[in-house]
Specification:
It comes from Dactylosporangium maewongense. This protein is α/β, with parallel strands linked by helices and 331 residues long. It has 12 helices and 10 strands. The strands form 2 sheets. The chain has an 8-stranded parallel β-barrel, surrounded by 6 helices.
Length: 331
């Protein structure tokens, strides 16, 4: 496992992030505690050091299990959790990005994780009703108090993140060092605005659902999978199944698994760290194998052609008019 710094900070994070959304069996498909222990141990043995959870995952069980499993070795890991999603649907202030929910969510997470600080605290989803100034100042206060070391933002428009970090720069607050978005061969939307913005601001990107909800593992191409799955076979588009078929063909040529190909494609982009989640240690070990896969340029071209993705306006228009705008200076 190799390491990189988290955004424009000195924090070292591993090239694959372990997602703990599967930690716990509450609310559907997940892993029991002992299997979670084996998953975490296998990840650590491979050199992984960064674990991602949230205050609402498995109704709080994910954080509780992670806190139990990290006992005696917590400081060896970069522990990341999130807030925004409601803690109590009957409480008007139970969710959102405002200061009250941040404080109560953070205290809840610290108690469950059995620690006095989290290494990375993520804003989970943009809250349209809370001014971004309030959120950034509240996050900075949590950093000043020593309960949070670094901050990041997930599932938020590029213009909001840009404004947030500009405000932080102007006012001397802690800026976002990371961005979390869905990113895979079946969902390349982040390439339009979010990934260019992250590159401009020096943000590390952690990519959730890099296997497209399991579609890119190929398990749906032969019909409904035999094991429990989050998706129904009928809910998957022909386009996505076609992309998964292309991934499977490339995997066959390279002698690796489709999941390893899909993850290798996601991680080949500078600054992008896939979040790998697993319900079994065997699934995790398969995913970890992506670090040994190198995709030749011609195979990358084939995979991306299968997606039919285009950046759209304004990126396409800017590219098309480059010579018209710059004349002989176009490069």
């Amino acid at each position: 496992m190799r390491y990189t710094t988290f955004g424009r900070t000195g924090l070292r994070v591993s090239e694959l992030v372990l997602g703990a959304m599967t930690f716990g069996e509450q609310g559907g498909v997940g892993a029991p505690v002992e299997e979670c222990r084996r998953i975490l141990d296998a990840y650590a043995d491979a050199g992984g050091n960064t674990v991602d959870t949230a205050v609402n995952y498995r109704g709080g069980a994910s954080e509780e299990i992670l806190g139990e499993l990290l006992a005696g070795r917590r400081d060896r890991f970069v522990v990341a959790t999130k807030y925004t999603v409601t803690r109590d649907a009957t409480d008007p202030n139970g969710g959102g990005n405002h200061r009250k929910n941040l404080r109560l969510s953070l205290e809840t997470s610290l108690r469950r994780l059995r620690t006095d600080h989290v290494d990375v605290y993520w804003v989970h989803i943009w809250d349209r009703h809370t001014p971004i100034e309030e959120t950034m100042r509240a996050l900075d206060d949590a950093v000043t108090a020593g309960k949070v070391l670094y901050v990041g933002v997930s599932d938020t428009p590029a213009w909001v993140v840009s404004r947030a970090n500009t405000l932080a720069e102007w006012r001397g607050w802690t800026p976002f060092a990371g961005l979390q978005v869905p990113y895979s061969l079946v969902n390349r939307d982040a390439e339009r605005e979010l990934l260019p913005m992250a590159d401009a601001y020096g943000l590390t990107v952690t990519a959730w659902s890099p296997l497209g909800g399991g579609v890119l593992s190929g398990k749906y191409n032969a019909g409904a999978p035999a094991t429990r799955s989050r998706l129904s076979r009928d809910a998957i588009s022909d386009r996505d199944l076609g992309v998964a078929q292309a991934v499977g063909a490339v995997a066959g040529e390279l002698g690796v698994t489709p999941a390893q190909v899909a993850l290798a494609w996601t991680r080949r982009r500078d600054g992008v760290l896939p979040i790998v989640g697993a319900r079994t240690v065997e699934q995790l070990r398969d995913n970890l194998g992506c670090t040994e896969v190198t995709l030749p340029p011609e195979l990358v071209t084939r995979l991306e052609a299968a997606t039919g993705f285009t950046p759209g306006f304004p990126a396409d228009f800017i590219d098309q008019t480059r010579s018209w705008v710059l004349g002989a200076a176009a490069v």
